Automatic annotation (TrEMBL):
Species per Swiss-Prot/TrEMBL record: Roseovarius phycicola
First-tier enzyme category under EC: transferase
Protein name in UniProt: Methyltransferase
Region of interest (Disordered), residue spans: 1-21
Single annotated GO MF: methyltransferase activity
Length: 514
């Protein structure tokens, strides 16, 4: 490495060479975050014990519904639950006993092994926005998403240094039939990126397609023995599990693929307005869902999820970046750690319609909350707009840039010899400056986090360049990233097999848009 640097200096030198190095195409991906800072714990031991006791009471006395799923009912009966039609009441302690087989952490493999991620323990993996039917950018405004939009987001995710994961439904491509779009989305993740990705959950057969396509990409034996997908299984809060999501989870669990079992809660609408009440319901729901996951296959990788926001009591609209959501996210992190489970929550949440000041405030609150609450898998970490209805190209770039701050915060404070900087203090002494000292020269490239989007130029330069605001800068960065995109290498035979699978599957059924 030092030899290569010397050659670069010898050939070029000066500002032109440095500018060329800065503007060169780069598809570097930072390693997933490993925290060297403590988690923030908001609940004391008494509060945690009360919530845990109440959650067990909910499961035992009130129960949860497993709808239209006779196989689930039979599994619960065999496990010792009290079943009355579709209502399942779980004896105190049974769910906790069942989830003991779930791993504390696991590796999700990418087709490029350098992009593998570890989920659990002190790690945090960042994945992009998931699910919006609309997209927005400065060129086309707000519109229904297309497959072309989806592919652009996958390319941006691949090119984003601080984003570890390609995600899943980064937007919902409405120009492709509902029963076929999962095939095109999976193909995009597999071919246009070499980062880890998520599978389809909109119908059990689509989950099986995801497993089968991964068999083509990784090899069937590898998929059988390793986790190559992490997929989102939402609970219909309050306390209802539907056959579609549970059916998809059954497929993934039985194939040793990871599931995020996650309540979808808007406080005041799908859960109580109080923090403790919501945490009680969250814990009851994830205990039931993860226990069922382990009934399907003991030892299958699973993540405790929590998607929680509050509601505006005047309009009924969801709100984001609020202190109540932070309280719940911090508390749920403590509950997840006590269960010994990886934790999913937080993201680039905002209710704003544009990537404006409201979006920045709410997103910053939500991202920092995710880091400090001990989140291991942060879905929606970039691109979220308008309460999750919109995937924004500009905000995707802005948020992905800000994820670099989380990486640097997570490193904590070094107090080794270099971190103490006593040599610099001695060299400079009273009345001097540190710009030219040896310590600064040795550390200036890595000492401070540097944005790839925000503007730090003097006023005169900023004015000469058109007085561009942050959204305009992000739009230009997005265009640059897409222009510089280079498809990662993939064995042509594998790509042909994936294409053939998708084409054959799509040809085997008529289009359905419902």
């Amino acid at each position: 490495m030092a030899e290569a640097s010397a050659r670069r200096r010898g050939r070029g030198g000066g500002g032109a060479a440095r500018r060329a190095e800065r503007t060169a195409v780069s598809i570097e991906t930072a390693k997933y975050i490993e925290r060297k800072i403590p988690n923030f714990e908001i609940l004391n031991e008494e509060a945690l014990e009360i919530i845990e006791h109440n959650a067990e009471t909910v499961l035992e006395e009130i129960g949860v519904n497993f709808l239209d799923n006779p196989a689930a009912i039979e599994r619960w009966k065999a496990a010792g639950a009290d079943v009355n039609r579709e209502r399942v009441r779980i004896p105190r302690g049974l769910a906790r006993e069942l989830i003991k087989t779930a791993p504390r952490q696991f590796t999700q493999h990418a087709r490029n092994p350098e992009r593998n991620v570890v989920i659990g323990g002190n790690t945090m993996v960042c994945a992009p926005v998931y699910g919006p039917p609309f997209v927005r950018d400065m060129d086309g405004g707000r519109r229904y998403a297309t497959m072309e939009d989806f592919e652009k987001f996958v390319k941006l995710g691949y090119m984003s240094k601080w984003l570890h994961h390609s995600g899943g439904t980064v937007c919902e491509p409405t120009d492709v039939a509902v029963n076929k779009r999962h095939l095109d989305m999976l193909r995009a993740h597999m071919v246009l990126s070499d980062k880890p990705f998520m599978g389809s959950v909109t119908e059990p057969s689509r989950a099986q397609d995801s497993v089968d396509m991964c068999g083509l990409l990784f090899g069937k034996d590898f998929v059988r023995d390793n986790t190559v997908m992490t997929s989102l299984i939402n609970i219909n809060s309050p306390m209802t599990f539907d056959d579609v999501m549970m059916g998809a989870m059954e497929v993934y669990a039985e194939n040793n693929q990871a599931c995020i079992v996650s309540p979808f809660i808007v406080g005041g609408a799908m859960a109580p307005v109080s923090v403790a009440g919501t945490l009680t319901q969250v814990l009851a729901e994830v205990l039931a869902g993860i226990a069922y996951n382990q009934l399907c296959r003991p030892g299958a990788p699973v993540i405790m999820g929590t998607f929680v926001t509050s509601i505006d009591m005047n309009s009924g609209a969801p709100t984001f970046g609020t202190p109540e959501a932070a309280h719940i996210t911090y508390g749920a992190g403590q509950l997840a750690r006590r269960l010994g489970l990886p934790y999913r929550s937080a993201g680039s949440f905002t209710g704003s319609k544009l990537p404006d000041a409201q979006a920045a405030y709410e997103t910053a609150n939500s991202l920092n909350m995710g880091l400090l609450s001990g989140v291991n898998f942060m879905l929606h970490s970039c691109g979220w707009l308008e309460g999750g209805l919109v995937s924004s190209f500009e905000k995707f770039v802005m948020d992905a840039d800000q994820l670099g701050i989380l990486h640097h915060l997570a490193q904590g404070v070094s107090v080794d010899e270099n971190g103490q900087a006593m040599d610099a203090i001695r060299e400079v002494g009273p009345g001097g400056h540190y710009l030219g000292c040896a310590h600064t020269q040795a550390n200036f490239k890595s000492a401070f986090w540097r944005t790839d989007v925000l503007d730090y130029k003097p006023f005169e330069t900023w004015a000469e360049e058109g007085e561009r605001d942050t959204m305009t800068l992000a739009h230009a960065k997005m265009k640059q990233m897409l222009a510089n995109y280079q498809k990662p290498a993939l064995d042509p035979a594998i790509e042909e097999a994936i294409d053939a699978y998708v084409d054959e599957k799509k040809a085997s059924m008529p289009d359905a848009f419902a």
